[in-house]
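Table 4 source record.
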Amino acid sequence: MNPKPLPLVFSAPRGRAKPPRHLADLTLEERGEAAKEIGLPAFRAKQLSTHYFERLVDDPDQMTDLPAAQRAEMAEAFLPRLMTPLRTLEADKGTTRKTLWKLFDGALVESVLMRYPDRATVCISSQAGCGMACPFCATGQGGLQRNMSTAEIVHQVVVAAREMASGEVAGGPGRLSNVVFMGMGEPLANWKSVIGAVRRLTEPAPSGLGLSARHVTVSTVGLVPRINQLAEEGIPVTLALSLHAPDDELRNDLVPINTRFSVAETVEAAWNYARTTKRRVSIEYAMMRDINDQAWRADLLADVLTSYGDWGWVHVNLIPLNEVRGSQFTRSRDEDTDEFVRRLEAKGVPTTVRDTRGNEIDAACGQLAASE
């Protein structure tokens, strides 16, 4: 298999207008300084932060503890409209909600909220488009438009938390518990904004949302220097490495960044992350029929992962491929997936097959945006 190579783009095109500054872009201290700059006492910024991160409110009319004459001014300064929902589709009896967002400059991104019996997870985007050019991914085919700001990333989570709290999701009022950076974009290619967002999500209110870092998952196709940098950040998020192949020959085709960072280098960086943070790494592996699902590749994957020891540093998450219309890549046969699991587990590698959600609403990253 030798699909036509696509150019890799690691940074967003320059010259675009920046998103308006939002309180979620700033630390609590920076928000206080910004308030003073426009002639307001610093505690007003803290009040706004409490509304946004605790009450999940960004409508100034609902902020009755603020002076009525100043609400609009404060909202304009700290809570500008960053994104507008264009479409929201539901599946799985209302427990899966996919939203297509239009950003301030017209770029389109997606997020998916999934409610399970024991948790509620939102899958968020970190870039408009993606420059990694993985040929089986809908987002990768559109290229990179731009990086998202910290606040644009965070706002997807705040809205999901609001939808859970208000009972908009089937099952009644509840609490958002998990965030996964597995939507559009390569999170570690947008380092500054993504790390800022992780801090906002995990800092206690009113600085941030107060989610557990252990319930935040950051995925990557393998930007090795950034994985190493993440290991030193001191925030124990879960790292998910999108590997998709255990050998360089195939991974060079499926994940073009592999031509810069080999399977060995990438897996070693993931192992170093686990060793440094004491957090188990998730290996994401999209199962593609007759491409990467052969039994011998399961054996090779197990050998690669267990070469770093068998102390439980890793878990393999097999993903039934979300098929993209017109693509040569199709979902693996059930019997091939079952054999893949059997061979991994026989070599001591914990393995699960991901529960698929939202197939009927184009839940694969980029599909809904592409349809627009």
